């Protein structure tokens, strides 16, 4: 593979591009990531004991969604230089010239402030503080400090993506608990194998911009080993909600089956070291990991809703 930098056409500043359009600002908020954040926060909120008033719940979810979007905008502001040189991110609004970096900074900062303040004032300050911690951790710890300095960027920085169920739980209860911490740990240990699978077949992108993802620094074989090790931790954690009463029998069955498939794919990634087949299996694991996390939380949500209906 050639190490020649990806050369993109320079955007032309026109009345149409300056200031961007609504769709460009929505893209800044990383809507796909935001949807996962809102979904896991909803599960934490519904699974929490005592319930929450529907209006307060909607307000909390809107604040969490806006806070997640603010994090995405600030991440794109800070990473605009490397986004422009990576095939996966070159079409984002700032590299395309649809939104300026300064506009993204102001947009993200304003959304951050109002999402945290609104959640704190209208819901409770435990949830507001956790949302503030989530945003700050993602921007200052992951984006600014870890991402360009250490291959542990995803391991430590993954905590930011694991906080939403705790925020949802805190919105409903005003505190945290063992159950919410377990939901945090599931996402925390899911994040490394999920992103390292992506990095295995996108390694040239990360090499080009100097981001020390694990395959770049330690090599693909060590990355495959780490994927398998983290998967061995993740799968029991994924089943654990059943043993503390957070998940029911349906959850136990689904999480066990999903975990077995996850481990099978992780083992295939570990064993398949070269060629197109290695990239194909890494893609399979990356894709399945999204389904794995979604289904775990979807079954938890479904079980909790059924309990409330039958109560």
- What letter string, H or E per element, gives the SSE order? HHHHHHHHHHHHHHH
Q: Could you say which overall geometry the principal axes of the C-alpha atoms support?
A: flat
**Count of individual beta strands:** 0
Helix content: over 70%
Beta-strand level of the residues, as a percent range?
under 5%
Structural class: mainly alpha
Task: Please give the structural blueprint.
Elements (H helix, E strand, L loop, with lengths): L21 H7 L2 H17 L6 H25 L1 H4 L17 H22 L2 H22 L6 H5 L1 H4 L1 H10 L4 H24 L1 H7 L4 H4 L2 H20 L9 H23 L3 H36 L1
What does this structure look like?
- This protein has 311 residues and is an all-alpha fold.
- The protein folds into 2 domains: 17-176, Tetracycline Repressor, domain 2; 189-311, no CATH class.
- It has 15 helices and no strands.
- It has helices at residues 22-28, 31-47, 54-78, 80-83, 101-122, 125-146, 153-157, 159-162, 164-173, 178-201, 203-209, 214-217, 220-239, 249-271, 275-310.
- Helix 5 (101-122) packs antiparallel against helix 6 (125-146), helix 6 runs antiparallel to helix 9 (164-173) and helix 10 runs antiparallel to helix 15.
- The longest helix is centred in the last third of the chain and has 36 residues, at 275-310.
- The protein is flat and about 55 Å long.
């Amino acid at each position: 593979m050639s190490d020649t930098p990806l050369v993109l056409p320079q955007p032309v500043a026109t009345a149409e591009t300056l200031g961007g359009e609504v769709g460009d600002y929505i893209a800044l908020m990383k809507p796909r990531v935001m949807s996962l954040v809102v979904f896991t926060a909803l599960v934490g909120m519904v699974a929490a004991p005592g319930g929450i008033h529907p209006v307060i719940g909607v307000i909390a979810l809107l604040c969490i969604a806006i806070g997640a979007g603010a994090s995405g905008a600030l991440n794109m502001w800070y990473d605009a230089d490397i986004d422009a040189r990576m095939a996966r991110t070159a079409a984002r609004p700032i590299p395309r010239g649809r939104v300026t970096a300064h506009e993204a900074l102001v947009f993200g900062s304003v959304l951050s402030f109002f999402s945290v303040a609104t959640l704190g004032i209208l819901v409770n300050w435990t949830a507001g503080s956790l949302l503030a911690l989530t945003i700050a951790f993602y921007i200052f710890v992951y984006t600014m400090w870890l991402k360009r300095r250490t291959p542990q960027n995803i391991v430590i920085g993954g905590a930011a993506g694991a906080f939403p169920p705790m925020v949802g739980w805190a919105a409903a209860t005003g505190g945290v608990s063992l159950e919410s911490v377990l939901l945090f740990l599931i996402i925390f240990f899911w994040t490394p194998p999920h992103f390292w699978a992506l990095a295995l077949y996108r390694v040239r992108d990360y090499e080009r911009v100097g981001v020390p993802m694990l395959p770049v620094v330690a090599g693909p074989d060590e990355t495959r080993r780490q994927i398998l090790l983290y998967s061995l931790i993740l799968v029991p954690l994924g089943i654990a909600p059943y043993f503390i009463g957070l998940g029911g029998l349906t959850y136990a069955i689904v999480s066990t089956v999903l975990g077995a498939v996850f481990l099978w794919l992780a083992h295939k990634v570990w064993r398949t070291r070269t060629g197109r087949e290695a990239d194909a299996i890494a893609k399979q694991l990356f894709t399945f990991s999204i389904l794995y996390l979604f289904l775990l939380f979807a079954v938890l949500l479904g079980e909790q809703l059924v309990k409330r209906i039958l109560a």
